[in-house]
Design a protein that fits this description.
The chain is α/β, with parallel strands linked by helices. The chain starts with 11 loop residues before the first strand and ends with a strand. The protein contains 19 helices and 29 strands. The strands form eight sheets. A six-stranded mixed sheet has the order 3-4-5-6-10-13. Strands 14-19-18-17-15-16 form a six-stranded mixed sheet, sandwiched between helices. The protein has a four-stranded mixed sheet with strand order 12-11-9-20, with no helix packed on it. Strand 5, helix 5 and strand 6 form a beta-alpha-beta unit. The structure holds 2-acetamido-2-deoxy-beta-D-glucopyranose (12 copies). One 2-acetamido-2-deoxy-beta-D-glucopyranose (NAG) binds next to helix 17. Pathway: Glycan metabolism; cellulose degradation.
């Protein structure tokens, strides 16, 4: 049950499994940093810095690979500084034993549930803290998902910057409420894995990582937007990315680091490099890089650092000022004091070094393994709830779902079963196999630093069998896709009452996907099962993002669930949805096209001699803001399932239309009032951008016979004649997930801020509210917007 207190700070009461939790989360949260406390922390940092000699200073800005953590800032024992332990990643404390694998960012975004996004951050942060990691390397807003096949899209949230921005904000607050530092990554324009960083040709020639060439407005309205939310939420650090931006490497790009991040957005924490994303010393430091990771790696033969001793000599010979050196240190150490990490922070878990060694195959088999700390707490419950809430019901003809006591259940597909090679940890050989990963076994999460070591996996088959035992029903299954694709499976008798086909799509860091369809002959698998199971075939996908689904229009496929990457409780959460214990309420955080040609952006993949030329690796973001639904809307392309779409076992309707009112009297200026002569000392940029200007209100009712949640969505259209070309038809600017009993209704309000109704004006380098009528639309998806109303803001 929700009680939505419509104050500036909404207070939600949320009933989960009978336990009431109060979460102070609303559409408009106050800034995440208390500046009084920040100032106190900064003076503690200064006091500490004043005691350091130059070598020690250089040590703090330079990581070490071979420490007790994956990435590590060495301690300074004479001053009692314990060092900083950094650990991947966005959905799990990567590599760690006795830790949870949570649903991926993509899955969390598909919940469209602010409370769950915050709870996920809180649980993640608790696990990092429990293991003694000071800095959690996540969450992810880059890639945003420009390319449907981007290998790391699932680590982030949505192809929409507003939804991603909300998810960044709430995840960061959740993580940092544990006293753990979050790291917003990867900044910026990091939208593909192919040639993400420099390579060396056979004859020793350097080939640079690709350059994302992005115009200023697109940068602000699309790719930078969620980073502004992250900074406003108080994120401790930002990680610069591998790629180049406008031909300059992200970690030495003064315009984007000093100018935009630290200047315009008022970011006062530190910028750290992605692993091996630093390409220079003093040049990077002067451009705004504050910490080099992983630092010297001579022992592992991976190269030298541009920082470390080079920083010492640069200060000594005057090419780097001591003031900038101290600025770097202040930026690194202020969050440490601000979050209270100087007081009683847990020590680094004793198994940390071993799990890292094991990951690199460096651990002798007979190494005794000390007992690590179990940090999983009762997070399994939240993981199960999140995954069920992030499952999107795309099709449900004739109420195929929820299942009604089927006697014989058919389960099909290599994604249904337990993994045949361990717990599907990314380091296991099978899972690294390009391009589709391991064959038999369900996918809980993607690969690379965003993955995790599953403590266990509840596979769909296991959970369905457990449920069937309770119900006295039978489960028949075929999990070998080659049998299914060749249509040579004969063991299925009697004919099942329902056939559940589980498909998977592997996605990982370091490589982009090469196909839109789910892996392992998915289309043949579905069609062959469906032909034997007409009008009762249900397809469930576990995927890192966008798939084309040629089988979706097969009339024998009567229900489809997109379950994304669900984490360790996969089977339990899908059973909850299949049997109706959970009424599905996930919504697509991306668009599913009818055919792959409907997507307008693709991975730049150069082959032949040009692949050895740095100049050739330029990705021109000529589509501007038109990715995902913005592209489909502008080009009037009908998607198969649009952004924001998702079904329920009940029905909802809006009542009383949409009313939009101004929340302040008096004239509103087109540009935000400036503060401190435009010196943005406020995290996130000019605070006036977050002033509420409009209040949009509607009423939603549950018109069906089952309790459930829906997501009411608000979109804004700026007047096309008052803004330069390149303005999307409409953009998401509000959403609320509302739980309703049958017959119940509730008023829903959306605060619209100045930023929400502005566009980035390149000439004045500021956000500007256009003249003329702004239209506001409300509904249940980007294409189901029954009400709209026009309002003049200026
Ligand atoms: C929720 O808030 C109410 C009122 O402020 C308080 O009485 C209750 O203890 C809180 N519950 C939890 C679980 O924090
Ligand atoms: C900020 O912190 C100070 C000092 O702890 C406290 O007095 C003040 O109430 C806080 N401000 C806000 C807005 O929470
Ligand atoms: C700085 O202090 C360290 C001890 O932490 C010492 O080993 C080192 O020699 C000192 N360096 C200089 C330049 O004084
Ligand atoms: C990438 O370039 C840096 C210098 O900018 C160099 O140190 C490094 O070895 C190069 N890496 C590869 C894989 O070529
Ligand atoms: C990238 O370069 C183009 C062309 O010079 C320029 O218009 C654009 O503003 C630059 N992008 C950013 C983010 O500065
Ligand atoms: C100063 O030191 C840096 C780092 O070792 C070096 O790259 C640079 O060339 C030096 N500059 C001068 C003027 O000696
Ligand atoms: C890039 O092209 C190569 C060579 O054709 C191919 O093997 C590879 O799969 C392609 N990568 C992607 C992401 O399309
Ligand atoms: C649906 O199933 C029926 C019965 O098996 C079959 O005749 C028909 O061809 C199937 N349709 C498709 C599109 O596969
Ligand atoms: C829906 O159910 C009705 C009645 O059983 C049946 O005639 C019809 O073919 C079904 N439609 C689909 C699309 O399965
Ligand atoms: C990107 O733009 C640059 C500069 O206009 C041009 O040289 C290059 O060919 C373009 N690259 C691609 C892949 O279109
Ligand atoms: C911005 O204001 C802060 C705090 O008042 C001050 O420390 C800083 O020097 C100012 N920066 C500029 C560029 O004026
Ligand atoms: C927005 O409108 C709702 C419904 O009329 C009202 O309860 C709420 O107080 C309004 N919020 C603001 C900030 O004006």
């Amino acid at each position: 049950m929700f009680i939505l207190a419509l104050s500036l700070l909404h207070i939600w009461m949320f009933l989960t499994s009978g336990v009431a939790q109060n979460v102070s989360i609303g559409a408009l949260l106050p800034p995440g940093i208390n500046s009084t406390q920040w100032t106190i922390a900064a003076s503690k940092a200064d006091k500490f810095i004043s005691q350091l000699n130059l070598t020690e200073k250089a040590g703090i800005v330079t990581g070490e690979l071979t420490g007790t953590c994956l990435e590590y800032v060495a301690p300074i024992e004479r001053l009692g500084f314990p060092g900083l332990c950094l650990a991947d990643g966005p959905a799990a404390i990567h590599l760690a034993d006795k830790a949870s694998v949570l649903p991926a960012g993509l899955t969390a975004a598909a919940t469209w549930d602010r409370n769950l996004l915050y709870q996920r951050g809180l649980a993640l942060g608790a696990e990092f803290r429990g293991k003694g990691a000071n800095i959690a390397l996540g969450p992810v807003a880059g890639p945003l998902g420009r390319n449907p096949l981007g290998g790391r899209n699932w680590e982030g949230f949505s192809r929409d910057p507003y939804l991603t921005g909300v998810a960044m904000d709430l995840t960061i607050r959740g993580v940092q409420d544990n006293g753990v530092q979050a790291c917003a990554k990867h900044y910026i324009g990091y939208e593909q894995e192919t040639q993400r960083s420099n390579t060396t040709t056979a004859d020793g020639k350097n080939v640079d990582g690709y350059s994302s060439n992005i115009d200023d407005r697109t940068l602000h309205e699309l790719y930078l937007w969620p980073f502004a939310d992250a900074v406003r939420a108080g994120v401790a650090s930002v990680m610069c990315s591998y790629n180049r931006l406008n031909l300059t490497y992200s970690c030495e790009n003064s315009h984007s680091l000093n100018g935009i991040l630290k200047g315009e957005l008022g970011f006062r924490g530190f910028v750290m490099s992605g692993f091996f994303a630093t390409h220079s010393g003093v040049k990077s430091v002067l451009a705004g890089l504050d910490m080099d990771m992983p630092g010297p790696t001579a022992e592992t033969n991976l190269g030298e650092t541009f920082f470390g001793p080079n920083i010492v000599s640069a200060v000594q010979n005057g090419s780097l000022s001591e003031a900038r050196m101290d600025d770097m240190l202040r930026r690194i150490l202020t969050p440490y004091y601000y979050l209270g990490q100087d007081k009683n922070y847990p020590s680094v878990d004793p198994t940390t070094e071993l799990v890292i060694a094991a990951n690199y195959g460096l651990l002798p088999v007979d190494t005794p393994t000390p007992s690590g700390r179990n940090v999983r707490s009762d997070h399994a419950r939240l993981i199960r709830q999140l995954a069920a809430s992030g499952t999107v019901l795309l099709k449900n003809v004739n109420s195929t779902l929820p299942l009604r006591s089927p006697q014989v259940i058919g389960v099909f597909g290599n994604d249904a079963a337990d993994v045949s090679d361990g717990l599907a940890f990314d380091g296991s050989t099978g899972s690294l196999t390009p391009p589709f990963g391991f064959n038999i076994g369900t996918l809980t999460i993607g690969g690379g630093s965003g993955g995790g070591r599953n403590p266990y996996i509840v596979s769909p088959l296991e959970a369905i069998k457990a449920r069937a035992r309770q119900d006295g029903s039978r489960v028949l299954y075929v999990t070998d896709n080659s049998l299914l694709a060749q249509d040579v499976f004969t063991s299925v008798y009697p004919s099942p009452d329902v056939c559940l086909v589980f498909l998977k799509t592997w996605s990982r860091e370091g490589a982009d996907r090469i196909a839109f369809e789910a892996d392992y002959d998915s289309t043949a698998v579905v069609n062959n099962v469906a032909a034997r199971c007409p009008q009762r075939t249900v397809v469930i996908t576990h995927s890192g993002g966008i798939n084309t689904t040629p089988w979706a229009t097969n009339p024998n496929v009567t229900a489809i669930l997109a379950a994304h990457y669900p984490g360790q409780e996969s089977g339990n959460s899908i059973v909850d949805v299949l049997y109706g214990d959970v009424n599905p309420s996930g919504r697509l955080p991306y668009t599913i096209a009818q055919q792959e040609a409907d997507y307008n952006t693709q991975i730049l993949n150069i082959t032949g001699p040009e692949a050895e030329e740095s100049w050739a690796w330029q990705v021109n973001f000529t589509e501007g803001q038109f990715i995902d639904y913005r592209h489909f809307d502008a080009k009037n392309i009908t998607p198969l399932y649009e952004f924001g779409y998702g079904l329920s076992y009940t029905t909802f309707a809006l009542e009383n239309g949409l009313s939009v009112s101004r929340t302040s009297r008096g004239a509103i200026s087109p540009f935000p009032p400036t503060i401190n002569n435009n010196n943005n000392t406020s995290a996130g940029g000019n605070p006036a951008l977050w002033t509420q200007l409009l209040n949009a209100t509607t009423t939603v009712g549950n018109t069906g016979s089952i309790a459930g949640s829906t997501v009411v969505q608000l979109y804004v259209s700026l007047p096309q004649d008052a803004v330069p070309s390149g303005t999307p038809v409409r953009v998401l600017r509000g959403f609320e997930k509302i739980y309703l009993e049958p017959g119940a209704r509730q008023t829903v309000s959306f605060p619209l801020t100045r930023r929400d109704v502005s566009s980035w004006d390149v000439e004045s380098q500021n956000w500007r509210i256009p003249e003329g009528n702004i239209s506001v639309h409300v509904g249940f998806s980007s294409r189901d917007l029954p009400y709209h109303t026009a309002v003049r803001v200026l």
